[in-house]
Amino acid sequence: MRKRIRTLSKPVKFLSAAAVGGGEEGRGNFGKSFDFLCPDDRFGEKTFERAEGEMARLSLGFALKKGKIPPEDVGCLFTGDLQNQCAATSLGLLSFGIPTVGLYGACSTCTEALICASLWLCESPENSVAAAVTCSHNSAAERQFRTPLEYGAQRAPTAQWTATAAGAFLLGSDGGEGMPEIREIMIGKVVDGCSPDASNMGAAMAPAAADSIVTYLRESGFEPSKFDAIVTGDLGKVGSALAEELCFNEGYDISGNHFDCGCMLYDFSKQDVHAGASGCGCSASVLACHFLPELQKGKYREILFLSTGALMSPTSVMQKQNIAGIAPVIRICGGEK
Amino acid sequence: MRKRIRTLSKPVKFLSAAAVGGGEEGRGNFGKSFDFLCPDDRFGEKTFERAEGEMARLSLGFALKKGKIPPEDVGCLFTGDLQNQCAATSLGLLSFGIPTVGLYGACSTCTEALICASLWLCESPENSVAAAVTCSHNSAAERQFRTPLEYGAQRAPTAQWTATAAGAFLLGSDGGEGMPEIREIMIGKVVDGCSPDASNMGAAMAPAAADSIVTYLRESGFEPSKFDAIVTGDLGKVGSALAEELCFNEGYDISGNHFDCGCMLYDFSKQDVHAGASGCGCSASVLACHFLPELQKGKYREILFLSTGALMSPTSVMQKQNIAGIAPVIRICGGEK
Questions:
Q1: Ranked by mean pLDDT, which of A132-146, B78-92, B200-214 comes out on top?
Q2: Mutation site for A-interface testing, chosen from B47, B190, B321 by largest number of A Cβ within 10 Å
Q3: pTM of the full predicted structure?
Q4: Nearest residue of chain A to residue B312 (CA atoms)
């Protein structure tokens, strides 16, 4: 049997983190924790696509400032977005001049980037720094994957709201006293979501999320209660219920400590986001705004963090291909006391 | 100064390699070296997009067979394609059930995948195996990035012909007696190509290729003649001439041993491919069909291999954004005698 979990040869520390968001994100549950909010979602740019790149740039800028790290000290950048072909992050982050690895794991790209950055750091000399940046923009994603907002298409109740948000993380295998750290990684498996419905990505991603959670728990021998939180990226209400059921069927009851960033980012009582949040920026910003600070404060001791991605393209959806899901996993532990 | 070149803690061996191609590729210079050719470019599928996924599946299947490695022994798959959002490889390779990292570096994805697979192997136990698979399909790429073939749009003289090809590589840090190995990696930097012209990607990628070559040579202290070949991915005729000139201006004359896969895949005397080949499958198939066998035979002792990518999306092109380039580098040495 293939061993899936890798314990890193050196734990990788979060040196700093930052998040930026749009208007809807400002009105959500973590409005006060974002480093920057732009109420009109345009970030001073002429197009939504450029705005997405600008969000990436701003978030990395804030992370560098908070970590007191100059861009030239960052050895490598792992990044991706929701625009087809990483156009936002390629152009948005160009000015930093940091060597770059472009990633695509749909909404799972945040964890994918943290995993790849960790692998790179373990092969790097002491005091190396890596960056992981992911972003998504509601208006850019809607017109790419579904219909332009101007068409006014009615959204299905199972649809999720792509977050206009970016999260940036600086990681190092040294330093970062008292900061949370990544100790284990598990690369995700592509799992057929058995559905071609681009308006129900929660359902398409739930099998992949459950596969990753069950595989991790089975291989590690841990019970779900080992973790203060088992955090999924953006299953939303529909996908979360399905993933919990799938895990339960495999003998793991995660309902007591399962959190989903897609169910946390917005305030359901005030915001009409249907099944919840999604997008590369969703899990990234909730990690930066909520989970990392809570781990740092000691409220959480350790969490299992898995962003979830729905792998599709506008063409594959039109061709009625099933949407596959993927859910890479990292185990994050609180800083040593 | 940021050190760019990483010497791997354990050299990574090519355990096997395979390539599949379409009709045009069969008529090209390496027609006899492909593991499988499909003259009608459809690979038994109803759509070109599905055909691209099927090519990925076939190429990995051949690599596994040639390496006598069952899919369940492959710990991780690093993969990407030219369809927006990795739709081809996500769906095409799903049946193998191998944990997957989706990458996007446009036509540079082959080297990007080999780099990430090398990093993963260095953090993996003995006898681990990783796979790197990349593919592109002319008809799928044309209708995504430019216009559907049915429109019959006239192509510019600077335009390149996206290869209908896939390449798969199995890598391991152990075994592979006498096989070529990756000793060093250098992650690429995103460089503004200063041109928004999607019909001249060679020009858009040349600055990135030159940046990577000059940076590598300067940091390593090597002269270009150190290598039997400095291989770029798919600059084509236009980009190759520009990259050589840019390197020359920085004090490095690479014209004596520079090879470009985009200028090698097709036979210019018989095939009207304008400036040459391009696509994720171009450098992957030329590496699998030509350079690895030549390294194995001892014809080449060591090569510097850098696939080149043009980072753009259909939307960014319509919005007249400049196309950025990227060129990650690996140093491949022949097997020990």
A1: B200-214
A2: B190
A3: 0.97
A4: A87
